Amino acid sequence: MRDTLAAPPARTQAPLHHLTEPQRLDRSLIEQLLQATSDFEQRAGQAQDRLQGRLLATLFYEPSTRTRFSFEAAMHRLGGQVLSAQNAGQATSALKGESLEDTIRVVGEYADAIVLRHPEIGAADRAAQVARISVINAGDGAGHHPTQALLDLYTIKKELGRLDHLRVALVGDLRHGRTVRSLALLLAKFPGNELVLVSPPGLRLGDDVRGAIGAASIHETDDLTGVVPRLDVLYQTRIQAERFASADEYGRYRGIYVVTPELMRRLSEHAILMHPLPRVGEIEPQVDADPRAAYFRQARNGLWVRMAVLDWAMTP
Ligand code: NCD
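That is the input. Now the predicted structure with N-carbamoyl-L-aspartate docked in place:
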């Protein structure tokens, strides 16, 4: 506590390090952050004074387990402290009608960086426009989730040894799934990657992401079984129930793709199965024992990645 009192929020003139959209990450920044991630993982116990005396505000207007806990664990492991609002739509003055912008302006007076999860696309960008401190997007509706995409890259690099010339299937709700939208953009920054987009026609990846990637490296299908044998990465996702207009519409897609032990027999020995989690039936629990099932290792990597991102965001 003494350290926090001794160190008021930094008011530096240096440019802020916002991370709102994956396009903010060019290849050299990605590589810098992945290197820092690896350093934090290898020297986990030696970083306790990196952000001593700093305060992180986590503002979550949507549910979260992994993202909030790993950001908060990362901040504590870096020696900093955390101000946390979960269920922020109900627990902050948002309930009284305060705008996101005003909330961000005020929290910016108390903390040194903000991690924001919000149901509206573009919310993190709006926050960054008014914030006096760095804003990190922890998910803006059906928009983006850049730190998840970074931890996905870190996982692929660790598991397969490279980030280029990979054949990656993104499976499920590609229309609303912010993790796949961000991951597709980051994978496209490395040479030779082929994306196989597996979704029903109504849940296809948006034109904004598709346009940024370029059609040459994209294949599209609704047939999961057929594409599995030639993949390096099978990236399964949840149908995003909360983004549909009605329960009926969600019901049309629920359970459409399920990874079973039988499907895993078609996947190469060297390939991996990823999922950002939470899963709600789209990977059967019997698959967990398969060494290619990487999703819990992937979740663990979130901690190191978020240590690297917070260190970058709070260091001028
Ligand atoms: C994802 C999210 O919130 O977008 N979860 C996560 O951060 N790991 C995926 C999801 O909710 O389906």
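The chain has two domains: 22-145+302-314, 146-299.
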